[in-house]
Each structure stands twice: as C-alpha cells, then as structure tokens.
Design goal:
Number of strands: 0
Helix content: 55-70%
Largest sheet: none
Number of helices: 5
Order of helices and strands: HHHHH
Structural class: mainly alpha
Oligomer: single chain
C-alpha cells in the first residue's frame, strides 16, 4: 500500500495540477488574450494548491489514525493554539493561512474583471472562496486519516487572505486591463 503525505507528494500534486491549469489557461489565452489566460491559470492552480496544502497529510506514512484520537469538533479558540510555523515554510501559521488564499482572490478579480458582470461575479467568487475554506475545515474535521484539525481561526485567516487578494486584484485591474483581448483574437 502506498502512503501519501508529506512535502514530496504535495509538490508532485501541485506540479500535476499546474500542468492541467496551464493547458486550460493556454486555451483561454488563445481565445480571450494573455491576461485572461494567465488569470484563469492562476485561479485554477491556486484553488488546487489550497486543496493540496490543506488536505494532503503533512507527514508521509501516518497509517491508521483511530477515530477516538481525532477531534470531534472544530476549535473555536480564535487565534488559538496554532503552531508557530508551518511544516514547509517558516512564519506563523495564521499568516501562512492568510497568504495561501491571496492568489485566489487576486486571480479571481483578473479572471472576471473583463466583464461588466464582474462586479457581481467577484463578490460571489469571494463568497465561494469562503465556502471553500469552510468545506476544507469540515473535511479536516471528518476525515481522521489526513490527521488535520478543524479550526475556525483558519477560516477567518483564509477569508481575510482572499479579501486581501481581491483588493490587490482591484488595484491591479487598471494596469492589467483584462477586458482588452489580444489583437486578432476577436476576429477568429
């Protein structure tokens, strides 16, 4: 039986997800322009990386984790007993949870900023990212085998990161101008 977990598996999964996102981004880029292609690549890959980093076991070879040893409820201790660092990167876990969602918020704005309906789609996308974070925490709570803990602070940090990414995306929107497809793309 192959045990899946640890940094090596995370990097492998991120590379595979990146290839899939790249293929989709290139297809979109040909049709709607480079900025749209990059935005969709970044959005899809960042969403996949979030799942990989939060749902793949942090260590390889965990084996069986008895249900009685796994938490039965989420921690409601805001800013609670999160470790001071993350197993891959240094720094506080709360900061890293926030930074993990920043690219998704930024690329969300660049992906939907090309349409007038973006003013509705971006806030809905932000709500979807919040629901995604909640779904991840629920999965961490109910799947003991991945040996992760559900924490309300993570949701707050994730949503803060997504909102920060949206703010950065809005600031970059006039520079990126995703509504301007590359020349000739609309003539095909």
């Amino acid at each position: 039986m192959v045990s899946i977990g640890g940094t090596g598996w995370m990097l492998l999964f991120a590379a595979v997800a990146g290839l899939f996102a790249l293929v989709i981004g290139l297809g979109i880029g040909r049709r709607m322009g480079v900025v749209a292609g990059v935005a969709w690549f970044g959005l899809l890959w960042s969403i996949a990386v979030i799942a990989i980093v939060t749902l793949v076991p942090a260590q390889n070879g965990l084996g069986y984790i008895p249900a009685r040893e796994h938490a039965t409820s989420c921690s409601w201790d805001i800013g609670g007993p999160a470790p001071g660092g993350f197993w891959i990167f240094g720094g506080g876990q709360q900061l890293l949870n926030t930074l993990l969602f920043v690219p998704a918020g930024l690329f969300l704005v660049l992906a939907f900023g090309r349409w007038r309906s973006g003013w509705l789609l971006v806030p809905l996308g932000l709500v979807a990212l919040a629901a995604y974070s909640l779904g991840i925490e629920e999965t961490q709570l109910h799947v003991a085998r991945i040996d992760r803990a559900c924490d309300v602070t993570d949701i707050i940090d994730n949503v803060s990161g997504a909102a920060l990414g949206v703010a950065i995306g809005l600031a970059l929107l006039p520079l990126a101008r995703p509504w301007r497809a590359r020349r000739g793309a609309s003539r095909r």
